[in-house]
Amino acid sequence: MFGRSLFAVFAVVAVASGCGGGSDSHASIVDKAKNDKKLVIGVKADQPGLGLRTPDGAFTGFDIEVATYVAKQLGVEPSGITFKETVSANREAFIEQGQVDMVVATYSITDARKQKVSFAGPYFVAGQDLLVRAEEAALTGPEALNGKKLCSVAGSTPAQKVKSEYAKEVQLQEERTYSACVDRVLGGQLDAITTDNVILAGYAAQHSGKLKVVGKTFSTEKYGIGLKKDDTAGRKAINDALEKMFSDGSWTKALQTSVGASGFTLPQAPQLERY
Length: 275
Ligand code: GLU
Fold this sequence. Notes:
It comes from Nonomuraea thailandensis. Residues 38-262 form the Solute-binding protein family 3/N-terminal domain. The chain is of the alpha/beta class. 36% of the residues lie in helices and 22% in strands. The strands form four sheets. The chain has a five-stranded mixed beta sheet with strand order 10-9-11-8-12, with helices on both faces. Strands 5-1-6 form a three-stranded parallel beta sheet. The radius of gyration is 21 Å and the shape is globular. Bound molecules: glutamic acid (GLU). Glutamic acid (GLU) is lined by residues 88, 105-108, 153, 156-158, 195-196, 199, 221. Glutamic acid is lined by residues 88, 105-108, 153, 156-158, 195-196, 199, 221.
């Protein structure tokens, strides 16, 4: 008798924790959005035009626009979104640990990252470039990096590329954020920053007359929306949302209002890679 009722209690607990709960780590982002009407989204906080926290605590930029559109398609209003700052090095961990439901943070789709998380997209294609002080004349591309002090961010694809391809010529300083790199180049301690051209364009516009983008890209960076590795339903739903954003004009409008101000040449929407 006692044994049977104890079994019943266990059964009820197992069922209650196994389904319907928004905090279940195995649930798809689709279910979480539908049930809780809330999402936590990892974004950058220091990249003008892309992901920037303003003094009043709000977030602005193209990644924010994309995140907000996708959330809405999943059934979550802007008031249900919590933006959480991510830096390049903690994006996979934040997704794996469930600290965020998705990441929209200039996040390149790579095979190495696909071992840990999955990606919807791409929703934008950038390329690695260099940012230097406005008066710099000699640093005209990656081939001119010899003996230079270069800054990039730990856990980013540009830093990885410099380590694997230019390590002999250059002294690489890895910071936690790109804005920390910007400070060091403006201060004269370092010579250049390397990361995606669209990120660099935002800093060049912010420090107009002091910094310039070299304008010679040397990689292809396809920005994806990162989510849990096994969430196939979530990936499909986010891809559907992006497809809609591309086709209804919202994508172009968001790009113009956020990135357009930097003077960056705006591309066409990319082809989604549904895998
Ligand atoms: N897109 C590159 C990456 O995901 C560089 C930009 C960044 O660090 O966010 O690593």
